[in-house]
Structure formats: structure tokens, C-alpha cells
């Protein structure tokens, strides 16, 4: 399973990078291979300051070693009974992770991540699970785009079980919640974690379907809007919304926290999710009935996009 998942994350990275490069031919990816002395490494592909994308990153990492006490505590708080041997928990984690921040405020930001974990307990038992998801963060609401995005993800889920999309859509809305703002980070998608049933093979096939849906759920939206005209006021609103993105990622995001708590992890790759630019204004409130107020309403009260 380790080698099959490693192949899937490498393929997903290559597919996404090819699709992004085709849309922004003047820009080029910085491809950065890195190693972790504690075990493993990864490849970060980052495009910055293109015509279409302000910052687009697609990372893969395959790391192993001993779980830090802080990371183990974070996992136990989610109900894992990890039994350490002499305080040590050998682990292996691999995943593909991407955040795309476009220049045009009419093109939404998109994030996806698919990962696989194995932890060896004191008695030699291997605990394994998959996690992941794909979600969209528009600056302005376009209902047609929202429906396309969610429908594409629903089709990927429905191949496996009709109950999965509604369950993981709700989990996504709940997970990407900025508590101190009372808003979601975006209009959601799907999110799941600690997935270890019905079987390793079935969960892997589900994760594979989700990973294969990433390009078709997002790239058509970029193509549709990347040449839309926009005003300085719309660009300003995009910067303020990006501030919210930063708040969620630094305060709440599980992957960011795990990365920062893992000894020898690559900080540049972990913080690749942050936009090139963002803005915070004191007491900024958009006018009622404005396009800005429209997206805020959906972020405060998530919608069902597919029924």
C-alpha cells in the first residue's frame, strides 16, 4: 500500500502541475527536492507571480521516523489509542497537498490534500488510515462554478457509496470553520480523516477517485474566469479574504500543525499554502446587498449545491 499510495501522489502532483502550467505558460515551476535527515523527503513544485496564478504549489512528501510526543498527543485527542514502546512510535506518512492562489479575484482559491498514515504500536500492531479532501475558496460567489465543483466531487464519491458525499461535505463545512470569525474558510467540498474501513483496498480506491477528480473539478473554473476584468475594489476584497485563509491555516489546520510539530519537517513546504499577499483592515464590513456580503452569507450558512 505504501508504494501504491506513493505512486498515486506522484501521479496527482504531475497531473496538477501539467494542468496549471498549460494555463500559465509564461510562468515556470520551481521544482525543489528535499530530504529529511530523520527519514524520507519530498518534492515541492511552486509557481509564483505568473499571469494567472499568484502562487500555486503542489507538494508531495513521504516521511518516516518517530512520532513526536506533541503529534502523538494531537492524534490521541482524536480518539487514537496509540501505545508507545519506551515512549517511541515509529510512523510513516505520505501525501500530496496543493494550494492554488490565482491573481484574478473571480478565480477561486483551491486546496486539496490526500494522505496515508501508518503507525507501529508497542506490540507490533500497525494502525493505518487515510485522510484528505478538496475544497474551494472563492472571493466572489458564482453559483454555476459552485455547482460544477461540488457535482464533480459528488460523482467521485458516488462511485463508491452514495452516503459518502453528504457525510464528507458536512465534515468539510465543519472542519474549515474559522471559529473566531463565525465563518467557513470557503464554500467547502469534501473532507475526511482517520478513514480505515471498510478495507484498505476499498479506502484506497475511494481516495484514488477523489484524487482523479481534482483537475476536472477546478481547472475548467480557472479557464472560464482567468481573463475576466476586475476592479481595484475587487482585488482589495480578495486580499481581505486571503487574510481569513491565513488565519485558518495558522490557527486551526491539522496538516500545518502536524508539520510544524514533526522534527526535521520542511517549513517552506508546510507554509507554501499561504498566499503571496494578504490584507487585514480594522473593522471592515461590506455594504448590505453587495457581492461581498453575498459570499459572506454563504460562508456563515453553508448551502447544499447539488440538490
UniProtKB/TrEMBL annotation:
PROSITE patterns: COPROGEN_OXIDASE (PS01021). Its EC number is 1.3.3.3. It is an enzyme of class 1 (oxidoreductase). Pathway: Porphyrin-containing compound metabolism; protoporphyrin-IX biosynthesis; protoporphyrinogen-IX from coproporphyrinogen-III (O2 route): step 1/1. GO terms for cellular component: cytoplasm. Keywords: Oxidoreductase, Porphyrin biosynthesis. Coiled coil: none annotated. SUPFAM superfamilies: Coproporphyrinogen III oxidase (SSF102886). One of its GO terms (molecular function) is coproporphyrinogen oxidase activity. GO terms for biological process: protoporphyrinogen IX biosynthetic process. The keyword Oxidoreductase applies. It comes from the Eukaryota. Homodimer. NCBIfam families: PRK05330.1. Belongs to the aerobic coproporphyrinogen-III oxidase family. This is coproporphyrinogen oxidase. It comes from Ficedula albicollis (Collared flycatcher).
Amino acid at each position: 500500500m505504501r508504494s501504491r499510495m506513493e505512486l498515486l501522489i506522484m501521479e496527482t502532483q504531475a497531473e496538477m502541475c501539467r494542468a496549471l502550467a498549460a494555463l500559465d505558460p509564461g510562468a515556470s515551476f520551481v521544482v525543489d527536492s528535499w530530504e529529511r535527515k530523520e527519514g524520507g523527503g519530498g518534492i515541492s513544485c511552486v509557481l509564483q507571480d505568473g499571469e494567472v496564478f499568484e502562487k500555486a504549489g503542489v507538494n508531495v512528501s513521504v516521511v518516516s521516523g518517530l512520532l513526536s510526543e506533541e503529534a502523538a498527543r494531537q492524534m490521541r485527542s482524536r480518539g487514537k489509542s496509540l501505545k508507545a514502546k519506551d515512549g517511541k512510535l515509529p510512523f510513516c506518512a505520505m501525501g500530496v497537498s496543493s494550494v492554488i492562489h490565482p491573481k484574478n479575484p473571480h478565480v477561486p482559491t483551491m486546496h486539496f490534500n490526500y494522505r496515508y498514515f501508518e503507525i507501529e504500536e508497542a506490540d507490533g500492531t500497525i494502525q493505518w488510515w487515510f485522510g484528505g479532501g478538496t475544497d474551494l475558496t472563492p472571493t466572489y460567489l458564482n453559483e454555476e462554478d459552485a455547482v460544477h465543483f461540488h457535482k464533480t466531487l459528488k460523482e467521485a464519491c458516488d462511485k463508491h457509496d452514495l452516503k459518502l458525499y453528504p457525510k464528507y461535505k458536512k465534515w468539510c463545512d465543519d472542519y474549515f470553520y474559522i471559529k473566531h470569525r463565525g465563518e467557513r474558510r470557503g464554500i467547502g467540498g469534501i473532507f475526511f480523516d482517520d478513514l480505515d474501513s471498510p478495507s484498505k483496498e476499498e479506502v484506497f480506491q475511494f481516495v484514488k477517485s477523489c484524487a482523479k477528480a481534482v483537475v476536472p473539478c477546478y481547472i475548467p473554473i480557472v479557464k472560464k474566469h482567468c481573463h475576466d476584468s476586475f476592479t481595484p475594489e475587487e482585488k482589495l476584497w480578495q486580499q481581505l479574504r486571503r487574510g481569513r485563509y491565513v488565519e485558518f491555516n495558522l490557527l486551526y489546520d491539522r496538516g500545518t500543525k502536524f508539520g510544524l510539530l514533526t522534527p526535521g519537517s520542511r517549513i517552506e513546504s508546510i507554509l507554501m499554502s499561504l498566499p503571496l499577499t494578504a490584507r487585514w483592515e480594522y473593522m471592515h464590513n461590506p455594504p448590505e446587498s453587495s457581492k461581498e456580503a453575498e459570499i459572506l452569507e454563504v460562508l456563515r450558512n453553508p448551502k447544499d449545491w447539488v440538490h
